[in-house]
Specification:
The protein has two helices and seven strands, in the order E-E-E-E-E-E-E-H-H. By secondary structure, the protein is α+β, with helices and mostly antiparallel strands. Helix 1 runs antiparallel to helix 2. The chain is elongated, with a radius of gyration of 16 Å.
Length: 139
């Protein structure tokens, strides 16, 4: 069985490193599916869920990323995430609270820079909540 090596890293830590049968993640222009021997590719990724079908046990590993860069080589996938959180560590209540705070920040923004920062935070929290819902459906 062909496999592909997958690394998901953030600025803080390595989130996942191992062999996989398949990887799916949110590309800038839509969902990307990566299989072993994929054509080389470098692209930006959006906030959302990275799903990794592990080669060792067939289970699906789930990681939320808040954007970043994807590099694909025929035998490896590297996700360099702005922020990455393991699926089991996602906290729905915390994400909802952060989304509400971002909404308030957008309403009270005093400059375009403040508004853009609040909009970015809001989008990341909305994506995180969508990822939590997707994870919940898989269980």
């Amino acid at each position: 069985m062909a496999t592909i090596h997958v690394d998901v890293v953030s600025a803080e830590e390595s989130i996942f490193s191992g062999e996989a049968k398949f990887v799916a993640l949110p590309g800038e222009n839509g969902e990307l599916g990566i299989l072993p021997k994929h054509t080389p590719l470098i692209t930006r990724i959006k906030a959302g869920a990275v799903r990794i079908q592990r080669a060792d046990n067939g289970e699906e590993e789930f990681v939320f990323v808040a954007g970043g860069i994807l590099e694909v080589q025929p035998n490896s996938v590297t996700v360099l995430a702005d922020t990455a959180i393991r699926g089991k560590d996602l906290d729905e209540a915390k994400a909802n609270e952060a989304k509400k705070l971002a909404e308030e920040a957008m309403k009270n923004a005093k400059s375009d820079i403040d508004l853009a920062a609040a909009q970015g935070e809001f989008a990341a929290m909305a994506a995180q909540l969508a990822a939590i819902q997707k994870l919940r459906k898989q269980r």
